[in-house]
Amino acid sequence: MTEPVLSVRNLQVEFITRRSVLRAIDGVSFDIAKGEVLGVVGESGAGKSVTGLAVIGLIDPPGRIAGGEIYLSGVRIDNLPQEEMRRLRGKRIGMIFQDPLTSLNPLYRIGDQLIETIRTHLNLSESAARKRAIDLLAEVGIPAPDKRIDAYPHEFSGGMRQRVVIALAICAEPELIIADEPTTALDVSVQAQIITLIKRLGRDHGTAVMLVTHDMGVIAETSARVAVMYSGRIAEIGPVQDVVQHPLHPYAKGLMGAIPTLASDARRLMQIPGSMPRLSAIPTGCAFNPRCEFAFDRCRVERPEPIRQGAQAVACHLYDAAAETAA
Amino acid sequence: MLAFTLRRAIQAIGVMIAVGIISFSMFRFAGDPVNQIVAIDTSAAERAEIRHSLGLDDPFPVQFSRYFINAAQFKFGVSYQFRQPVASLLKERMPATLELATCATILAMVFGILMGVYSALRRDSFLAKVFQAVSLVGISLPTFLIGILLIYLFSVTLGWLPSFGRGEVVHIGWWTTGLLTVSGLKALVMPAITLGLFQMTLIMRLVRAEMLEVLRTDYIRFARARGLTTRAIHFGHALKNTLVPVITVAGLQFGSVIAFAIITETVFQWPGMGLLFVQAVQNVDIPIMAAYLLVVSLIFVTINLIVDILYTVVDPRLRSTISRPA
Amino acid sequence: MTEALVPHTTETSTGGAAAHSSPGWFRRALESDILYSFRRSRLTMVAAVVTALFFLLAIFAPLLAVQNPFDPSQLELMNSRIAPLWTADGQSPFLLGTDEQGRDVFSAILYGLRISLTVGVLGVLFAGTLGIMLGLIAGYVGGAVDGLIMRIADVQLTFPAILIALLINGVVKSIFGNRLDATSTLAVLVFAIGLSFWVQYARTVRGSVMVEKNKDYVAAAQLIGLPAPVIMLRHVLPNAMGPILVIATINLALAIITEATLSFLGSGMPDTMPSLGTLIRIGNNYLFSGEWWIVAFPGFALAALILSINLLGDWLRDALNPKLR
C-alpha cells in the first residue's frame, strides 16, 4: 500500500483568549492519497479552515497546535522549525483562499507575484521563471497569458483572479493543495469552471487535494471521499457516494437532507433544529447531542470515537451497540 | 486620469480664490490702509485723495480683482513696519523656511518610517515600547518647549550648537543656502529636529498602524501560504502597501511643516517667513499677514495637487478607476 | 478612590456636552469594558490622578499661592530672580524661585494653570458646540447647506490650527488695536481656538447623523411629530457621544498647547496676566543668564499637564474603540 500524501493524526488546535482556552480542533484524523480529492464539509466554525491552516502551518498566535501529528508523504511536519516549514509552503503544499479579490497584492503585477513565488522555490533564472509563469497561466486557462502576465490584479475578473491564485498555488508542483472555499466568493457560472480546473489539476499532476467547503454540491462533483466536520471533530468520513446516499451520523443525515436535488420529489427539505455551539460552550459528551433527535444518556456524557462501518467511519454511539452485536 | 487631474486643479483654484477673499478682506477691512500711510494730522480731503488714488473707493469686485491680479504677479503691497515691498521680504525669507521645512520632513520621514516599521514588526519588543513612549512625549511636548530644551542642552550647557540664526549662508542667484557651510549646517541641526519631531511621531504612529493593518490582509496571508521569505513579505509586500498612504499623508503634512515653522523659527530666531509672520502679527502688519497667508496657501494647494497626482501614479488601482468615468 | 475620579475628569473636560447625553448612556459606558481597561492600565490611573491634581491646583490657586502674581502691587522688585528654595540662594516663601519682576514662580504657575485650563476648557466647549451644531445641520439638512459647511471644513482642515488661531488673533488685534485688556485677550483666545478646532466635531457628528437619519426610530419620531431639533439632540446626538468625548479630550490637550504657543509667540496672554506659555516666553530670555528655574518649572508643568491629558485621551479612544488597538 502506498503512503498517503497527507496523514493527520488526532490533531488538536487551541486558541488562548483572555478568559479561557478554546479548543477549535479536537482530535481530527484523516488521510489523503496521491491524486485523491478529499472534501471537508461542515457549517462555518466547524473547524474546516482551521484544519487546513494547521496542515500548512499558518496557525497564528493566540492559536497553536496543541497535540497530534501531521505527516506529509510519511514525514512529520507539524513540529518543523519555522524556516523549514516556510520552505515547505508553496513548494510541497499549495493553498488557495476563499476570496480571489483580496488574495493578490493589488500593487504588484501578477507576473511579478508569480515569478517571485517560482524563484523562491525553484532555482530558475528570471527569464526561465517568467516563461514558467506564462505556461502556468496558460495551464489554468488564462487567455493570452504572455500579455496578461504584466497586468495588475484589478484588471482581472473574479474568476480569472481565482485562476491566477491557483497558478500561484501550483507553481512549484506541490504534492498537496489545500483549497479553502475556492468557489464561495465566485458567481455560480464561474464556480463550475474553477471546480473543473481543480479536478483536472489533481488528475494531471497526481496532486492530493483537500477541498474545504460548506457546499455539498461542490464536493459531490469533485471529491472521492468526504469528511463531515462538526464542532472541531469529524462526525463522519467515507466515500462520497456512500456518505451522500447513506449518511450514518445524524448530523450528516440532516446535512444531506438539506441538499435540494432535482430527483427528489417535492418532499420538504430537512432542517436541523438549533445551531452549532460556540467554541466557548461546547456541550459535554457528543457535541451534537442537544440537536440530535436520537440522543440518549450516553451521548450527554461520553464523547463518541470514530467507528468503522464498511468504507465509512462514524463518530456516533448509535453504531457502537450495532458493532458490538455484530461482533 | 486627465479628467481627474483637471478636477483636482479646479478644486485647487477654488481653494485659492476662497483664501484670496479672506486675504483681501483682511487687507482691506482689518485696519484702514489709509491710516497706515498718512500722518495723524492729515486732512479729510487729503485722505479722500489718497483713498481715491489707491482705488479704495472703487466697487468691491473691482478692488478684489485688482488685488487678485496684483497678488498673482506677487505684488502684495508695502509692509507697514519695514516700508518695503512685501514680495521682496518674502522672497528673501523663503529659502530659509523651505530649507528648514525640507530637512525637517526628510528627518521625520526617515526616522518615522524606520521606527514605525520596527514597532509594527516587533510589537512586543522593548524598543517598540520605547518608541511608543517617545511618540507620546513627542506629541505632548509643545514644539517651543522642545526647542528650548535643546537650546538649554546643546547651546547653554554643552556649547556645541548655536542657539539662533542660520549661520553663514551662500548665495546662489536669489536663493540663499546654509547647507554648504559648516556653521550653516550646525545652525540647522536643532531647528530641523525641533520642527521634525512632531511629524516624526505622527509618521511613526501612522506607519505602525497602517503596517499592522496590512499584515492582517488576505494577500499577506496568501503570500505566507506561498512560502515567501519573511523578508520578502515584510519589506516587499507589506512595506510597499503601507507606504502608499503614508507618503500621501507625509506629503500633505509638508504644508503644515511650513506653518509649524512659525514656532520653530521664533524659538531659534531663524530668519524665515514664519518669523516674519509672527513679527507681522505682533505689529499688526496686515500686508505681510495677508501675503503670507496667500503664499503658504499656494504652497499647500500645489503640494496637495502633486500628491494627488503622485498617488494615482503609485497605486495602479486608482489609475484605472480614475480613467474610467465613475 | 480612583474610580471616583473617572466621572470627575471626563465631566470636567467635556462639561456640558456630557450632560446632554442620557444618564443611561453614561452608566452603561462606565459599567462596560471601559472601567475594566481603566483599572488594568496603571499609567492611565496615574494620568487621571495627575490631571485631576492640576485641575484642583488651578481651582484652589488663591489658597495655595503666596501672592497674586496678577496684582502688580504684590510684586517686590527687591525679590527678583531668587533661586529655588533648596538651592544655596533660595529664600522663603519662594518655593520655585522668582522671576525678573519678583513674581513667585510657584504662584505664577498656579495662576497660569488657571488661565491655560480656562482657555482650554472654554475653547473645547466653544469648538464642540459650534462643531456639533454645524455637523447636525449639515447632516440633517443635507444638500447645498451640507456641501457648503463641509467644503469650509475641508479647506480649513488643510491649514494647521495654530496658523488659523494666529491669523484670527492678528485680525482681532488690528480691529481693536491695543484697547484689549487681559480678560478680553482671554476671550479672543477662546474664540480663536474654538474656530480652529470645530471641524473634527462637525465631521463626526455629521457622519453619525447620516447613519442614524435613515433608521426606523427617527422615522417614528418624525411621525409622532417631534420637531427636528428635538430628534437630533435627544436621539441622534447621544449615539455620537463616544467619539465626541474622545475628540474633546484630545482637543483639550491641543487647545492648551495652542494657547501656550500663541502666548509664547507673543500673541496670547500679556505679561501682566501670564499663562503658562507667557511664563515660558518670559523665562526663555533668562536661559543664558543662568536663571533656569523661570522657564523650567512652567515648562515642566505644561508638559506634564498635556502628557497626562493625552494619556487619558489615548486610553479613552482605545477603550471606546477596541478595533483601533
Task: Describe the protein.
The complex is a heterotrimer of chains A (327), B (326) and C (325). In chain A, strand 7 (176-180), helix 8 and strand 8 form a beta-alpha-beta unit. Chain A has helices spanning 48-56, 82-88, 100-103, 110-121, 126-139, 145-148, 158-169, 188-205, 216-222, 240-245, 250-257, 297-301, 318-326, and strands at 6-16, 21-32, 37-41, 63-72, 75-76, 93-96, 176-180, 208-213, 225-230, 233-239, 307-309, 312-314. The model of chain A has no long low-confidence stretch (mean pLDDT 85). Chain A is α/β, with parallel strands linked by helices and 327 residues long. In chain B, 76% of the residues lie in helices and 2% in strands. Chain C has one domain (42-324): MetI-like fold. In chain C, 74% of the residues lie in helices and 0% in strands. Chain C is elongated and about 75 Å long. Chain C starts with a helix and ends in a 5-residue tail after the last helix. Residues 1-22 of chain C have low confidence and may be disordered. Chains in contact: A-B, B-C. The interface between B and C is large, with 44 and 38 residues.
Number of helical runs of chain B? 13
**Helical coverage of chain B, percent range:** over 70%
- Please, how many domains of chain C? 1
How would the global form of chain B be characterised?
Answer: globular
How many H/I helices of chain C? 13
Instruction: Give the helices and strands of chain B as they follow along the chain.
Output: HHHHHHHEEHHHHHH
Q: Uncertain segments of chain C of ≥5 residues (pLDDT<50)?
A: 1-22
What is the CATH architecture term of chain C? Orthogonal Bundle
| Strand residue content of chain B | under 5%
- Which blocks of ≥5 consecutive residues of chain B have pLDDT under 50? 322-326
Oligomeric state of this protein: heterotrimer
CATH homologous superfamily classification of chain C = MetI-like
Q: Cα-atom Rg of chain B, whole angstroms?
A: 24 Å
How does the overall form of chain C come out from the CA principal axes?
Answer: elongated
Intertermini distance of chain B? 12 Å
Estimated structural class of chain C: mainly alpha
The share of residues in helices of chain C is over 70%
Main CATH class of chain C: Mainly Alpha
Average pLDDT reading of chain C: 79
